[in-house]
Design a protein that fits this description.
Blueprint lengths: L1 H9 L3 H29 L8 H16 L1 H9 L4 H23 L5 H25 L9 H30 L3 H19 L18 H6 L1 H13 L4 H31 L4 H33 L2 H20 L4 H29 L2 H29 L7 H23 L1
Helix pairs in contact: 2-5, 2-6, 2-7, 2-8, 3-6, 3-15, 4-6, 4-10, 4-15, 5-6, 5-8, 6-15, 7-8, 7-12, 7-14, 10-15, 11-12, 11-14, 11-15, 11-16, 12-13, 12-14, 13-14, 13-16
């Protein structure tokens, strides 16, 4: 199989193997932690969850650290990325442990959200750093394949981490705090794994490293403007369009995720445990779609003539199949839709990552990927807000399903027009 052969080739690169280990452990911990938060906020029996409360939780957790994103980009272009992985995961292990303590201490909700916010804020540095460091450990010829396998492997690790969290929550210990402590242990393992990477390997180049925090932050606005201008330049125009398309597809995914949460909580199950198990199954099926995307994206981009055209196919497929599978509001079609959206979303993301990484110079990658993350988070929170306005108490909304399909269709049409031109 081609993907197995490609993976064997990539694993010959020692730097890639070690960076991949950090990614797998780090994103696996993310999956555990995020499922624990979802179970605590959405599926606690004593909580009467609504779409508005889910949107509020997403806003609290995502919007504030969107402000961290630009600073993360500047610092990633100035600080050694290996050190970001080391200290970032150590901080997350500590704060995740604090979150577990707060869960069992009956403290005000705002204090819990502050602790969770600290974990997710540091996440911006780690994920942006992983994307920015990838071209430092593989050659240009294998960058597309690395972008197919590495981020997708991280997403699968997050999915497996989420599955492990479901098992611990439903079978081993009926405690969200215990699940969060498992995530903290995985964050600690990710920090230890980063020590196997040379401090200099992941960049940026020594001439660009400026350890002074004040000097780094004072030039944030100027550096971000330079990064945006760099991305908007004529040789990188396709990457900019792909980034805009992926942001809109992230909006669609966020709106459908809120709907799925509400359906699993109220429409498709009678108890919170059944709803949580069904959500775990849906996320696992979506993870299978991520895996298939990693298999077919390198082949599809070669066959179609470039990553941009594969984005068109992914968005167009979602535009057609999402309403066909979503409008019945039945369990089996919705689970099938989870697979389709996992495949199309991850396929488009792999293509977007490849276009951005190939087009952006190394000294700008950190800040560009941080802007990428900010757009993702704002789109996700905006989608949750729109879903909160549209969704009824049980989560069934034909208007939302059709609206999302129209957005997917607009993305496909716009990107097709650009790639054709």
């Amino acid at each position: 199989m081609a993907v197995v052969r490609d993976l064997r080739v990539l694993l010959r690169f020692q730097g890639f193997r070690r960076l991949l280990a950090v990614r797998l452990l780090s994103q696996g911990a993310d999956g555990v932690y995020q499922v624990a938060l979802a179970a605590y906020v959405v599926f606690s029996p004593e909580k009467q969850t609504s779409a508005a409360s889910i949107a509020s939780a997403m806003a609290v957790l995502l919007l504030p650290y969107s402000l961290v994103g630009p600073f993360a980009g500047v610092l990633l272009d100035r600080w050694r990325r290996r050190q970001v992985f080391l200290y970032g995961n150590l901080v997350r292990a500590l704060m995740a442990s604090a979150t577990a303590v707060l869960m069992v201490s009956h403290v005000p909700d705002w204090l819990f959200y502050v602790s969770a916010l600290c974990v997710t804020a540091v996440n911006r540095f780690v994920l942006s750093g992983l994307s920015a460091a990838l071209p430092r450990v593989v050659d240009d010829e294998r960058l597309v394949v690395a972008n197919s396998l590495s981020p997708t492997a991280g997403t699968l690790a997050a999915t497996l981490g989420g599955g492990l969290a479901f098992v611990v929550r439903l079978v081993v210990a009926d405690s969200d705090a215990a699940v969060v402590l498992l995530g903290a242990a995985l964050y600690l393992c990710a920090a230890l794994a980063s020590l196997r990477i040379s401090r200099e390997l992941l960049g940026p180049d020594r001439a660009l490293v400026r350890p002074g925090l004040t000097a780094a932050l004072s030039g944030t606005a100027r550096d971000l403007r330079a990064g945006v201008r760099h991305l908007a330049g004529e040789p990188r125009r396709e990457a900019a369009w792909a980034l805009a398309s992926m942001t809109l597809m992230r909006f669609c995914y966020g709106a459908l995720l809120v709907m799925l949460l509400m359906l699993c909580r109220y429409a498709f199950s009678d108890t919170t445990d059944d709803g949580l198990a069904l959500l775990g199954l849906a996320l696992g099926i979506s993870g299978a779609g991520f895996f298939v995307a990693a298999l077919v994206t390198p082949w599809a981009t070669r066959r179609l003539g470039g990553p941009g055209r594969w984005i068109v196919v992914c968005a167009g497929t979602a535009a057609v199949l999402e309403p066909a599978l979503g409008l019945p509001f039945a369990t089996v079609p919705m689970l099938t839709a989870s697979f389709v959206l996992g495949l199309t979303t991850q396929g488009a993301k792999i293509s977007t990552d490849t276009l951005v990484q190939s087009a952006v110079d190394d000294e700008f990658r950190g800040r560009v990927f941080s802007v990428y993350d900010v757009l993702f988070n704002v789109a996700f929170v905006g989608a949750a807000g729109v879903a909160a306005l549209m969704l009824p108490p049980d989560g069934r909304s034909a208007v939302l399903v059709v609206t999302v399909a129209l957005v997917y269709g607009a993305v496909a049409a716009t990107m097709a027009r650009f790639t054709h031109r």
